[in-house]
Write a structure and sequence with these properties.
Alpha-Beta Plaits; 2 helices; two-stranded antiparallel sheet; four-stranded antiparallel beta sheet; globular; alpha+beta; about 110 residues
């Protein structure tokens, strides 16, 4: 089971996060998400536990626990929605010339 863990202390290491969950069973992976530019923790991560019963027990016990003065949030991770390509997704618009052509056509000027 994939587990989301949020509100983590920013100095927490992946090995420490893994240790918290190993008290409840086997942990196959522990990952803290970091900013791609600074490399600093974003304050959340994911734990992978192969045994669903052990994972549920860990979630139950650790959700709301205090770690280094912070109350952490622990729950079952939701499947990531694919945000690439296809579907009824619309790209963000905006910027110069929005709402008409380059001459301002298509805009109401009589407000």
């Amino acid at each position: 089971m994939n587990i989301f863990c949020g509100s983590l202390p920013f100095r927490l290491q992946e090995s420490e996060l893994k240790e918290f969950f190993e008290e409840y069973g086997e942990v196959s992976a522990a990952r803290i998400i970091t900013d791609k530019f600074s490399g600093r923790s974003k304050g959340f991560g994911f734990i992978e536990m192969p045994d669903d019963e052990q994972a549920k027990k860990a979630i139950e016990e650790l959700d709301g626990a205090e770690v280094d003065g912070r109350t952490i949030v622990v729950n079952q991770a939701e499947e990531r929605k694919d945000t690439r390509g296809g579907g009824n997704q619309r790209g963000g618009g905006g910027g110069y010339g929005r709402g008409g052509d380059s001459r301002g056509q298509g805009r109401r000027s009589d407000y």
